[in-house]
Write a structure and sequence with these properties.
The complex is a heterodimer. By secondary structure, chain A is mostly beta strands. Chain A contains no helices and 11 strands. In chain A, strands 2, 4, 5, 6, 9, 10 and 11 form a 7-stranded mixed beta sheet that branches. A 4-stranded antiparallel beta sheet of chain A has the order 1-3-8-7, with no helix packed on it. Chain A is globular. The termini of chain A are far apart. By secondary structure, chain B is mainly beta. Chain B contains no helices and 9 strands. Chain B has strands at residues 9-13, 18-23, 31-38, 45-50, 55-56, 61-64, 70-75, 84-92, 108-113. A 5-stranded mixed beta sheet of chain B has the order 1-9-8-3-4, with no helix packed on it. In chain B, strands 2-7-6-5 form a 4-stranded antiparallel beta sheet, with no helix packed on it. Classes of the chains: A mainly beta, B mainly beta. Chains A and B meet through strand 4, strand 5 and strand 10 of A and strand 4 of B.
């Protein structure tokens, strides 16, 4: 199993541009989530999903959209990037009643 | 959810045991203690979790005090590869257990020295 795969690893955007961060998992996990991590900070939950067609907001959802059309994929969309969204983004997944959260290797995003 | 308090940083000599403390004095009876670690530039990695009893797995041991107000993560023989930020997290067992969310604080930076 590849686990949780995130693409791209690095991205530079200009203010106002849009982009989608991709996340895929091959473990048949129902629960998937997106976190952001800023320097010196812990991880903050952006959005999460407990299954295809079901998403909900975390603690910092503003400026981000998600959808879950399949069990495997959970993309994160930035509709109009802002410098405040410069961060490292992590996708994570687990079984719906699982104890372990599995993380991807992260996407480093810079918004100029 | 109960908050946790961890030291900002700790040092440990290679080959010695690393004992990482965590205070969670407001923990409730149904709240689990989790530990994750994050090696530089990588995604966090699950280590261990527990409710009341001490737990041990291939990575570490978790010691929870009898009043459950604090816990200690023990890495029995630390190596240089154990240098990482260690997060102590308390989570509530929600209804059905499916929607629990983990809140990661700033953690403890453990530096293992040669």
């Amino acid at each position: 199993n590849a686990g949780v795969t995130q693409t791209p690893k690095f991205q530079v955007l200009k203010t106002g541009q849009s982009m989608t961060l991709q996340c895929a998992q091959d473990m048949n996990h129902e629960y998937m989530s997106w976190y952001r991590q800023d320097p010196g900070m812990g991880l903050r939950l952006i959005h999460y999903s407990v299954g295809a067609g079901i998403t909900d907001q975390g603690e910092v959802p503003n400026g981000y959209n998600v959808s879950r059309s399949t069990t495997e994929d959970f993309p994160l969309r930035l509709l109009s990037a802002a410098p405040s969204q410069t961060s490292v983004y992590f996708c994570a997944s687990r079984q719906i009643t699982g104890e372990k959260l599995f993380f991807g290797s992260g996407t480093q995003l810079s918004v100029l | 959810d109960a908050k946790t308090t961890q030291p900002t940083s700790m040092d440990c000599a290679e080959g010695r045991a690393a004992n990482l403390p965590c205070n969670h004095s407001t923990i409730s009876g149904n709240e689990y203690v989790y530990w994750y670690r994050q090696i530089h530039s990588q995604g966090p990695q699950y280590i261990i979790h527990g409710l009341k009893n001490n737990e041990t797995n291939e990575m570490a041991s978790l010691i929870i005090t009898e009043d459950r107000k604090s816990s200690t993560l023990i890495l029995p023989h630390a190596t240089l590869r154990d240098t990482a930020v260690y997060y102590c997290i308390v989570r509530v067992e929600g209804s059905g257990g499916s929607n629990y969310k983990l809140t990661f604080g700033k953690g403890t930076l453990l530096t293992v020295n040669p």
